[in-house]
Amino acid sequence: MKIKKAEWNLSVKMIPKVLQWFLNFCLIILSFFLAFLLIKKLVDFYKILLLDGGSDYKLFLANILVFFLYFEFITMIVKYFKEDYHFPLRYFLYIGITAMVRLIIVDHEHAIDTLIFSLIILILIICYFIINITPLERPIRSWFSSKKEGN
């Protein structure tokens, strides 16, 4: 009876570790795809500026903001690994603000939509402000972290 309970406890402890390794592997693969798309955007910049004459500024600005979205996602994945498997919420806010600015630049034909996008940006900035004034209360040590308590 005790052997089965010990085996059960071992398997219960191994499941989160295996899932964490799987998640890490998938995030690394995703970061390679995002890096490829980031390089592809640089090629698009070259085509817009040099081959097309650089006359379509709207397309160029939209591509710059998509470039920053890829960049922010890659940065968020790097921070995930640097901060002990934790996604900082502020990076999601950065991505949301950048996406809304891109929508305003690309789709600004309807004034009501532009106003709504602007209000969304204001809400995201207020959330960012609230996050910055809120004290950080994270556990010091987690089961997959090798940091010692008190460091």
UniProtKB/TrEMBL annotation:
Spans traversing the lipid bilayer: 21-39, 59-81, 88-105, 111-131
Main location: membrane
Entry keyword annotation includes Transmembrane helix: yes
Tree of life domain: Bacteria
Protein's cellular compartments: Cell inner membrane
Record organism: Ureibacillus galli
Keywords: Cell membrane, Membrane, Transmembrane, Transmembrane helix
Pfam families (UniProt xref): PsiE (PF06146)
Family to which the UniProt record says this protein belongs: Belongs to the PsiE family.
Membrane topology, as annotated: Multi-pass membrane protein
NCBIfam families xref list: PRK02833.1-3
Descriptive protein name: Protein PsiE
